[in-house]
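Suppose you are handed only these lines of text.
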Amino acid sequence: MPSRLAVLASGRGSNLQAIIDHFHDLGREATGRIVLVASNRVDSPALLRAATASIDIASFSATDDGSELLSLLGKFRVDVVILAGYIKRIQTSVIQAYAGRILNIHPALLPAFGGEGMYGARVHEAVIAAKEKKTGVTVHIVEDEYDRGPIVAQWVVPVLDGDDAESLAARVLMVEHIVYPRAVEMVAALNHQGFTPPS
Ligand code: GRF
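From them, the structure of the protein bound to 5-O-phosphono-beta-D-ribofuranosylamine can be written out as follows.
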């Protein structure tokens, strides 16, 4: 039986789409199944993508003590939570209940260029301002501190001469779409075998 996955997204949902497509392509070989896509924003395009793929959708409060999200995850018997452009902090009660079973993707090589306020274009602007020659993507387990927690996968992306935040973001995003679905697949398989990543 595949691991039951919930994807939380606040924005456009391109990583969600990549995960949906990847698991669809795997068919019966899939180690996980997205049983729920939920957002703190009812107008998130990610919800539309999920509905189009016939996946259950829901919205929840990101500012309560976590009980709304926890009861949603319980109702759908979720094993692993995947953050895909989810902008809010996950409440401590949820992190504790799903210790080692919440994944996030960050568009840089953590621990560099991470932390509170480091999201979207700001990450790539900071990378360019620091004159870095390389950046990348990081998939990690979510812990209480922003952008911390054990790293599950990382891939380096070059910063090219003349890059601006937009061109760099596009190159990084292309890599995210390849790396994240496969990292999710790996964690789903491990969870299924009882190997929960350390937290
Ligand atoms: C991605 O760059 C991801 O690394 C970050 O938020 C962005 C989400 O993009 N956490 P999308 O909504 O998946 O298109």
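What can we learn from it? The CA atoms of residues 96 and 143 lie 9 Å apart. The longest helix spans residues 165-192.
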